[in-house]
Specification:
389 residues; Jelly Rolls; 9-stranded antiparallel sheet; 6-stranded antiparallel sheet; 25 strands
Length: 389
């Protein structure tokens, strides 16, 4: 993260004696990235964070197999047709993925168990509903339009308030703001479309009592359930630059040109082998002869995964795309507006329309995306041919 935070009680110096009211020592836990040569935070536990009393392997649920996108084709998946059988962790339905990232959809109204992803960071986009994110760092209240970014190794759980639907982006490494938005020292620059004030992080410790508490842990070797002697939510304070945070898509400040701007202006985060972009309501391109929707384009190095979260998609009318849809446009395929969309939007501008209301989350990957079973179960088989109608 770009800036340092202190939450709760911490001693004046790191790695010195810090004692509980009863005279015993708080237990330090240093959470650090890249072999402790990058961002880190130092957490102070009431109990030993190393004390486990049981470990058991967990058999993964069926239906997580990926298949190549063959024959190569643009795809349309209707996530609104999917129903989840689990919580916001175990109920994730795999849409697409590769060695860098996995993209899943989940709908649930039940609390998740405690969970730690030790394979990489996660970015969970809340499409609908409100949910309480609880972690060793504290609590974040999240709602519609929030991205919740969770560092690798963070023990956490999700507690929905009613039914919640999310898009889960699971990285094989770390998710960060784009480098071009930051100074050499990590501060957001003035040209960035969001800044530190837009980020929400835990503001106070969250302490829970408990013994023999299970935590589901995902590693590259598979799933394990560790049972901790004491509840891991026992942190009285922490400081550092590594912590979960939320950012709402409505706080993204779109960059507008006279003519249509390419997708990099919408970039919000970057991960290893992929980027995350936010398409938000914004003024239409204002050159008097502009065509204010995307031109036909071919991103020769990327697959484009677009989750349509809200608003109106004038460029896609006639394609079947609607709120809750996912389009996948693979490298090797040129895509763009549906037939007739260009003329329709020019006419709309002539009638005085000056803004677009679309809201979407896009993940561009630099390696091909394979298809998950959930996507194949809700695919619109006619989508690929809609440009030829």
């Amino acid at each position: 993260m770009p800036y340092y935070r202190v939450v709760g009680e911490v001693p004046r110096k790191r790695h010195v004696q810090f004692r509980r009211p009863d005279g015993g020592l708080y237990a330090e836990e240093l959470m650090g990235e890249e072999g402790f040569s990058s961002d880190s935070s130092l957490l102070y536990h009431r109990h030993l964070p190393t004390a486990i009393v049981k470990a058991e392997a967990v058999t993964p649920t069926a239906g997580a197999r990926l298949e190549p996108n063959l024959p190569l084709s643009p795809r349309h998946f209707r996530t609104q047709e999917l129903s989840s059988a689990g919580d916001l962790v175990t109920g994730r339905m795999l849409l697409a993925g590769n060695g860098d990232v996995r993209l899943s959809y989940a709908v649930s109204d039940r609390p998740s168990e405690l969970y730690r992803n030790s394979m990489g960071d996660e970015c969970v986009y809340v499409q609908r509903g409100t949910v309480r994110f609880e972690s060793t760092y504290g609590v974040i209240e999240a709602g519609e339009g929030d991205y919740v970014v969770i560092p690798t190794g963070t023990i956490h759980r999700w507690v929905p308030d009613g039914q919640v639907s999310v898009l889960a982006i699971e990285a094989g490494g770390h998710i960060r703001p784009p480098r071009r938005y930051l100074s050499q020292h990590g501060q957001f620059l003035e040209h960035a479309p969001y800044c530190e004030r837009d980020l929400r992080a835990p503001a106070e410790p969250f302490v829970v009592e408990g013994e023999e508490v299970p935590v589901l842990v995902r590693t590259r070797g598979g799933l394990t359930r560790l049972v901790y002697r004491n509840h891991p939510f026992d942190v009285v304070g922490w400081d550092g630059c590594l912590y979960p945070f939320a950012f709402n898509i409505n706080d993204f400040e779109p960059i507008v040109k006279k003519t249509h701007a390419p997708p990099p202006v919408h970039q919000t985060f970057e991960g290893p082998g992929f980027v995350v972009c936010s398409f938000c309501p914004r003024p239409l391109d204002y050159h008097p002869e502009a065509i204010p929707i995307p031109y036909n384009h071919h991103n020769v190095d990327s697959d484009e995964f677009m989750f349509y979260a809200g608003g109106d998609y004038s460029a896609r009318k006639g394609s079947g795309i609607d709120v809750g849809s996912v389009s996948l446009h693979p490298a090797g395929f040129t895509h763009g507006p549906q037939p007739g969309a260009v003329e329709a939007v020019i006419e709309a501008v002539g009638r005085g329309v000056t803004t677009t209301s679309e809201m979407a989350v896009m993940v561009d990957t630099f390696r091909p995306l394979d298809l998950g079973p959930a996507a194949l179960s809700c695919e619109d088989p006619a989508y690929a041919w809609t440009w030829a109608r």
